Amino acid sequence: MNGTFLGMPAFPEAAREAVRDERLRGNLRHATHTIRAKRAAAVAEVSDWAELREAGRRIKDHTLRHLDRHLLRLEESVTAAGGTVHWAADAAEANRIVTALVRATGESEVVKVKSMATQEIGLNEALEAAGIRAYETDLAELIVQLGDDRPSHILVPAIHRNRAEIRDVFRSEMAAWGRPAPEDLTDSPAALAEAARLHLREKFLRAKVGISGANFMVAETGTLVVVESEGNGRMCLTLPETLISVVGIEKTVPTWRDLEVFLQTLPRSSTAERMNPYTSLWTGTADGDGPRAFHLVLLDNGRTDTLADEVGRQALRCIRCSACLNVCPVYERAGGHAYGSVYPGPIGAILSPQLRGTASGIDASLPFASSLCGACYEVCPVAIDIPEVLVHLRERVVQGGPATREGTKVVLRPAKGHAAERAAMRAARWAFGRPGVLRTGQRLAARTRRLHPRTLPGPGRAWTATRELPPVPAEPFRDWWERTDGGRNEGDAPQDPEETK
C-alpha cells in the first residue's frame, strides 16, 4: 500500500469498501471505545473543564485574528535565540527548504518525531526522491512505515492494526530498515515495544539530523513545544546536531502563559493523561546542550486561505488531540483511510477541503462524511463547531468550489455541476416564499400519499438506497393546527395517521 493518498476514491466509495472489512471495524471499535471511555474519565476529574475549553477557544481565536503580528514576533524571538526561520508558502517550497537543509549537512538519513505537518506535505517521499532516508521513531508511525501503510488516526496512526498484525510486520520488515526483530517475537505489547526500542536505539545514537513538528510555538519567547508519551521525541530533539522543525503557522500562541491552558486540555483530550510523560520545550540553540543548529520552517499550505473564511477558520484552532475521531460514528465504521487525507475523521472533513480546496472528488465528498450528530463539537477542547463548518462547506461544494477574495469580501464562485441540486434548491426557495403555493402543495401531497414511492428514481437512488422515504402525514401540520385551534382541541384530531385512511 502506497504511503500517500494520491489517487484515493471519494469518501462514499472508500467507506463502502472499508465497512466490509470486519477485522478493521473490530479493531476500530475496540480502540475508539477504549480511548473514549478513558478520556471521559480524565476530563471529569477537572471541575473547570468548561472554563478551560472556553479559554482555549478565545486564545486561539485571538491569535488567528492577529496571526500576522504574532508570526513576526515569533520570527524575531527564534532568531534572537540562535535559530533560523524559513517561510514556506506551500508543500513544494517546504520540501525544497528541508531537503536543502539536510543536504547542507552532508547527511543521507534523518530521524523524525511524529508530525502531521510533514505528513501533510509528503516530506518523507520528497526526501526519498533526494536520496535521503527518513526514519519514523514514534511506535505507531514506525508500524505504518514498516508496513508501507498509511496513517489512519491523528493520535494512533496504526489504530487499524491489531497486535498480531504488528508482530507480523515487525518480523517481515524490520531487517530491511535496520536491526531485525527477535526470531521468537510474540504479540504481547511489552515484546513489541522492546523490539521497537532496540530497533530505534541505534538510529537515535547515529543520526546527525532530526526533523520534528511542534504542538505549539510561543511568539513571546520563540519556544517550541512537543508533547508525547514514548520518549522518542525527546531523543530526536536533543541528540542530533541539526534540528529542523516544520510547523503550521496556526500553531502559534502569543505568550508562555497561554500554554497553561493547552497543557491541561491536550493530554486529557488525547491520551486521557493528566500530563504527558514527555513535554519537550526548546528555544533556539544553546552552547553544549542540544542541537548546534535549529531551523524553523513556517508552513502556510492553504492556511492563509482558510483564515479568509470567517466560518471555516475555526478549524485552525485544532490542537490535534483526536477526541473528535474517537466519538465519531462515521469514523468508527469507515476508518481513517477512507478520508483520503492525513487528517481523518471530523476534523479532517473540515480541514482538508479548506487546505486543499474542493476541486477533487475526495475533498468535495468530505463535508458529507458526517451524520451531523454533534458529538465531535461536545468533546472538542477548543470548541470547534465542526457541524457548523461541515454545513458551510457543503454549501461551498454545491455552489461550486473554494472561496476567492475580492478586496475584503469572500466570494463563492458557482461552477459547473450540481445543476439538479441547485435547481431543486431554487424551486424550494420559490415555494417557501409563497404561502399559498406551499399550502396547496402540502395538501396535494397528503391526498396522494398512497401513490408516493418508498424509493426515489434516478439520482435520488443514492439517498434511498440505504433508507426509506418518510411517510407523508394524513394532513399538513398547518391544517391540523387550524382545525384543533392551535393544538388546544387535540381530542378532535386523530391520534394515529393510519386512522384517517
TrEMBL record:
Coiled coil: none annotated. Residues 73-298 form the LUD domain. The keyword Electron transport applies. Residues 315-384 form the 4Fe-4S ferredoxin-type domain. Pfam families: Fer4_8, LUD_dom, LutB_C. GO terms for biological process: lactate metabolic process. Residues 451-501 are annotated as: Disordered. Residues 476-491 have a biased composition (Basic and acidic residues). GO terms for molecular function: 4 iron, 4 sulfur cluster binding; metal ion binding. SUPFAM superfamilies: 4Fe-4S ferredoxins, NagB/RpiA/CoA transferase-like. Keywords: 4Fe-4S, Electron transport, Iron, Iron-sulfur, Metal-binding, Repeat, Transport. It comes from the Bacteria. Residues 393-483 form the Lactate utilization protein B C-terminal domain. This is (4Fe-4S) protein.
